[in-house]
Write a structure and sequence with these properties.
heterodimer, A: 10 strands, 37% helix, B: 132 residues, mainly alpha, Protocatechuate 4,5-dioxygenase, Chain A, 2 domains, 9 helices, 0% strand
Chain lengths: 279, 132
């Protein structure tokens, strides 16, 4: 049987990828953050699952106003790094896992979660930056990936509770996959940040700390946050944090916090990462 | 027009059905800059390229002026305007600074973030920020 081994939450700020791609990680602006990545990467090096479900959002790259889905599963054999306006990142092609991806689609739809499906989807920084954070700069990514794309840009986004319940349904699907493989799940985006408007640059460390603490001890508290709670307290782009609820919903009720990293600033954001193992 | 409870959050532009309809073609222009051949065409003659999209003259002018806060007011979303600042080969902090109130240079915005970012206190609601 397939086994879910761990979850990670991480921001997916494009600047982190650009700093790596352009060899700037030793510069004073970046060095503290990248020092913080060292224990995270050490854990990942010891805990590479066969497949990782990456919950992320597209940023007007492969989806736009003319055509978007609330939840979409990537079932392709592979996914190319996207051109987001400055040419594709020179990172390895992301290898998919169509067999588990299709099992998830079938299981989720029968479990009342009506997933959209794509086999033709270039992945932007929302997916590739977390891979770079976890695995640095390998010639090939060590894990296969199932992209799970969530609409967090066009209002209304799915609710925080819906995202958590989706995570629970994903767990039921993993538990019923007959192949003996290990699976990881990442929630990406956040933490508090606002990129647009006169309030650009707003961050809220108290809110972020509460959200991270809740992930460990009281995950249901994070499901009661409304869209406006996120917009007001964590910035209009901070609403990406709902994707961490998908990750958390898939884990056991009791989890062990393995590592936490929090750093301001990364570009205009509060960067956060957490690794959780089933207890 | 239907009001939303987040309308009370100051200096914040949520991409909802209102801005979706107002900014649709403006945002789709921005989106087109994902393609290298479109970026080249835009660089050759910005106005001629903008004419290919059924946008308002005001929206076209705001693009030419790189007036980012105006673009948001005219229905653009920041993930879409990101394509313009990337096309200009500028770091996004240039755009964030221009949108800020009062406006900031790249250096000033960067400095604000290094010093812990814009504080949430005083910025939660229009009433709290004194702009209501």
């Amino acid at each position: 049987m397939a086994r879910l081994v761990a979850g990670m939450g991480t921001s997916h700020v494009p600047g982190v990828g650009a700093a790596m791609d352009n060899g700037k990680t030793d510069e004073p602006y970046w060095s503290e953050l990248f020092s913080g990545f060292a224990p995270l990467r050490a854990w990942h090096a010891e805990n590479v699952p066969d497949v990782t479900i990456i919950v992320f959002n597209d940023h007007a790259t492969s989806m736009a106003l003319n055509h978007y889905s609330t939840f979409m599963m990537g079932v392709a054999e592979s996914f190319q790094p996207a051109d987001e306006g400055w040419g594709p990142r020179k990172v390895p092609v992301v290898q998919g896992h169509p067999e588990l991806a299709w099992h998830l689609v079938e299981s989720l739809i029968l479990d009342e979660f009506d997933m959209a499906v794509t086999a033709d989807f270039d992945v932007d920084h929302g997916l590739t930056v977390p891979m770079s954070i976890a695995y640095d700069q390998p010639d090939a990514w060590p894990t296969r990936v199932i992209p799970l794309c969530v609409n967090v840009i066009q209002h209304p986004q799915p609710t925080a509770l819906r995202c958590y319940k989706l995570g629970q349904a994903i767990r039921r699907a993993i538990d019923s996959f007959p192949e003996d493989i290990t699976v990881g799940i990442w929630g990406t985006g956040g933490l508090s940040h606002q990129l647009g408007g006169e309030r650009a640059g707003v961050v809220n460390p108290d809110f972020d700390r509460m959200f991270l603490d809740n992930l460990v001890r009281d995950p249901m508290a994070n499901t009661r946050l409304t869209h406006t709670d996120f917009i007001r307290e964590a910035g209009s782009e901070g609403i990406e944090m709902i994707m961490w609820n998908v990750m958390r919903g898939a884990l056991d009720e009791k989890v062990r916090e393995v590592y936490r990293l929090y750093h301001i600033p990364v570009s205009a954001t509060a960067y956060g990462a957490i690794i959780l193992e089933n207890d | 027009m239907i009001s939303r409870d987040y309308d009370d959050v100051p200096g914040t532009y949520v991409l909802d059905s209102r801005s979706y309809r107002k900014g649709y073609h403006l945002n789709m222009f921005c989106m087109s800059l994902n393609k290298a051949e479109c970026r080249e065409e835009f660089a050759r003659d910005e106005m001629a390229y903008l004419q290919k999209f059924p946008m308002t003259d005001e929206q076209r002018q705001a693009v030419l002026d790189r007036d980012y806060i105006r673009l948001l007011q005219l229905g653009a979303n920041v993930y879409y305007t990101f394509k313009i600042v990337s096309h200009d080969r500028q770091p996004p902090q240039v755009m964030y600074g221009k949108m800020s109130s009062p406006p900031m240079s790249f250096e000033e915005f960067q400095e604000m973030m290094i010093n812990g970012g814009r504080p949430i206190d005083g910025n939660r609601s229009k009433k709290e920020s004194g702009n209501g």
